[in-house]
Amino acid sequence: MERFDRNTPVGMVSYFRHCIKTGDVKGAMSCFDAQGVYIDRTGIAIRGLQQIEAAIGHLCAWRPDIKGATPHVTMLDNLAVWLDKWKMTGTTPDGHPISMDGHTTCLMKKDERGIWLWLVDNPFGAAVLDV
C-alpha cells in the first residue's frame, strides 16, 4: 500500500489524486476542510461537504489518472497557495475516453493535527474567467 505524508501540501495532493484514481470518495473528501469550497469548470463555487462530495463522487467514478507538473507552493503559517499544471486521462463509466488538462489555483489550510486540506479547490484556475 502506498503511503502519503499529508503533513505537507505535496503529500496531501498526491493522496487526493490517488483517491480520485482509485475511486475512493471518502478518502478524497477527507482532503477538504469543513468550510471547503470546490470551484467547478464553469466557475461556480460549490459549498458544503455534501455538495462537494457529489462533484468529487462523479470524478471518482471515472477513476482518472491525474498527473501534475512541479507545483509552485507559497506558504504562510497554516495557509498555502497551490499552483500547478495537470493532465487527466481516463475512461468514463460508459466507456468514453477522457483527456483534460488545466492549471490549478487552490488555497490549502493546515488543521490542528498538522494535515493539509483544501480550503478552496479550483482545479481550473483562471480558465473559469473564460466561461
UniProtKB/TrEMBL annotation:
Organism: Chitinophaga fulva
InterPro entries: NTF2-like_dom_sf, SnoaL-like
Organism superkingdom: Bacteria
Name the record gives this protein: Nuclear transport factor 2 family protein
Entry coiled-coil feature ranges: none
Domain SnoaL-like positions: 16-106
Pfam families for the chain: SnoaL_2
SUPFAM superfamilies: NTF2-like
